[in-house]
């Protein structure tokens, strides 16, 4: 295991924000290589789930912790979407998203904090998506309650993030890859050692497993909560409705 120590809760948000600012220009390349391009397929699964959940509707969508805008772009390409807000608290990550979304009339981008969506009224969105973001927030319950607040009744929340592998043998390989190989891949892409690539695997240790995350959704009043594992549970997509 890497010896990187997670930042304390009081400084986690600042650590995450400033370090995503630092790696923003290399984030997409890192993402493609460390996931063997599979993250694209998982993000496509979010779009399929939305399309299967809302036939013939004009959807107001929020892509929270949007980063460089991978999910936002997919949401704007969906015929069902009317408006797509992309929100992140890292200016540099959001600026990459802005470049990709320039000229798309239904796209709006703004700086914002997932744990305090003060710019958005209650019941504004039909869909909220988060990709690999919740693991980084300093108060997961608060973020889930804010997401629930801004969803319309009947709205759908979809979250994609790392999961926990149950099979002990596969878990040995998965941990070796995530904790030993992924940081080195990050240093190679970045050109030097960088805390962020150690933070990424270590941040998964304090993130709930699939069943506990499902319970946390339910505690924040999401209903019909389900999840789907990808690659033996290394990654999981959770979703739930505001009823
Ligand atoms: C791993 S990236 C994921 C980006 C994108 N969603 C994707 O799937 O490729 C995580 C993003 O979450 C953002 N983030 C983390 N905590 C946040 C918070 N409390 N509020 C807003 N954005 C946050 C980071 O700035 C970063 O851009």
Structure description:
- By secondary structure, this protein is α/β, with parallel strands linked by helices.
- It has one domain: 3-Layer(aba) Sandwich (Rossmann fold), CATH 3.40.50.
- Helix content is 47%, strand content 22%.
- The chain has helices at 9-34, 38-53, 70-77, 91-101, 140-150, 168-190, 195-202, 210-219, and strands at residues 59-64, 81-88, 107-111, 125-131, 151-162, 223-230, 235-241.
- It has a seven-stranded mixed sheet with strand order 3-2-1-4-5-7-6, sandwiched between helices.
- Strand 1 (59-64), helix 3 (70-77) and strand 2 form a beta-alpha-beta unit.
- The longest helix is centred in the first third of the chain and has 26 residues, at 9-34.
- The protein starts with 8 loop residues before the first helix and ends with a strand.
- S-adenosylmethionine (SAM) is lined by residues 13, 16-17, 20, 31, 65-67, 70-71, 88-90, 93, 113-115, 131-133, 136-137.
- The site of S-adenosylmethionine has 22 residues, from helix 1 and helix 3.
Principal-axes geometry comes out as: globular
Distinct helical segment count: 8
Strand element count: 7
Number of domains: 1
Major sheet summary line:
7 strands, mixed
Helix content: 40-55%
CATH topology-level fold name = Rossmann fold
Mean pLDDT rating? 96
| Helix/strand structural class | alpha/beta
Strand content: 15-25%
* CATH class descriptor name: Alpha Beta
Contiguous uncertain segments of 5+ residues: none
């Amino acid at each position: 295991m890497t010896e990187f120590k997670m930042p304390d809760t009081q400084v986690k948000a600042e650590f995450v924000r400033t370090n995503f600012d630092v790696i923003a220009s290399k984030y997409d390349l890192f993402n493609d290589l460390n996931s063997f391009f599979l993250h694209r397929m998982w993000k496509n699964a979010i779009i399929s789930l939305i399309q299967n959940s809302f036939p013939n509707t004009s959807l107001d969508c929020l892509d929270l912790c949007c980063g460089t805008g991978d999910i936002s772009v997919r949401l704007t390409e969906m015929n069902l979407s009317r408006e797509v807000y992309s929100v992140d608290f890292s200016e540099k990550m959001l600026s990459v998203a802005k470049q990709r979304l320039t000229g798309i009339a239904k796209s709006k981008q703004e700086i914002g904090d997932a744990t305090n969506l003060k710019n958005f009224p209650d019941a504004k969105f039909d869909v909220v998506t988060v990709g690999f973001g919740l693991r980084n927030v300093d108060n997961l319950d608060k973020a889930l309650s804010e997401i629930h607040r801004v969803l319309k009744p009947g709205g759908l929340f979809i979250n994609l993030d790392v999961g926990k592998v149950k099979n002990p043998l596969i878990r040995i390989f998965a941990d070796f890859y995530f904790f030993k190989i992924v940081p080195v891949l990050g240093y190679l892409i970045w050109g030097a050692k960088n805390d962020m690539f150690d933070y990424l695997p270590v941040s998964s240790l304090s993130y709930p497993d699939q069943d506990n995350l499902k319970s946390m959704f339910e505690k924040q009043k999401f209903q019909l909560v389900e999840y789907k594992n990808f690659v033996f549970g290394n990654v999981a997509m959770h979703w739930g409705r505001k009823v």
